[in-house]
Write a structure and sequence with these properties.
Shape: globular
Number of helices: 6
Largest sheet: 5 strands, parallel
Protein name: SLC12A transporter C-terminal domain-containing protein
GO molecular function, one term: sodium:potassium:chloride symporter activity
InterPro entries: SLC12_C (IPR018491), SLC12A_fam (IPR004842)
Distance between the termini: 38 Å
Strand content: 15-25%
Membrane topology: Multi-pass membrane protein
Helix content: 25-40%
Subcellular location: Membrane
Number of strands: 5
Order of helices and strands: EHEHEHHHEHE
Amino acid sequence: MFMRKQRKGTIDVWWLYDDGGLTLLVPYILSTRSQWSQCKLRVFALANRKDELDIEQRSMANLLAKFRIDYSDVIVIPDVAKKAQESSKLAFDQLIENFKAPGEISEEDEGVLISEAELLGQREKTNRHIRLKELLVENSKDSSLIVMTLPMPRKTSVSAPLYMAWLDTLTSDLPPFILIRGNQTSVLTYYS
């Protein structure tokens, strides 16, 4: 896919949080190559407060301009914390069904099965990932490529099956997807 010329379309960048700029840099570099030159860059960012959408959109546009990143659109998403639809939750529950622990988790199954306590403790993050999937389908289902900041879990707080279920939920049934995680070292520079 990366070797052949892409038709006119978009590369959607979902910049969930600042990772040093790698999530913005890689799709921008891709868009400068002849195979992807027909594709426009759209940048999606999450809003902290609903009443400051316009300010956040302008500040994101200014940031991209400082870094000399060509983009076609900046879209600030305000309602990622909203409750996910019931059908989406049911699909997620079906995905993790085989990995749920029937009762208490033994020491050897720690990190291999998902406990009810873990599901309860990670309820907000799970809802966020399910909601992100809904937003991805709503905004990016027709894009040529999706690039998103890789959500990183804390090693001791999330089991492997739950984390993989989050990633599967985010990426399934969508166009080609790249998950990127920078190391908080800035890769973008600008001169003032």
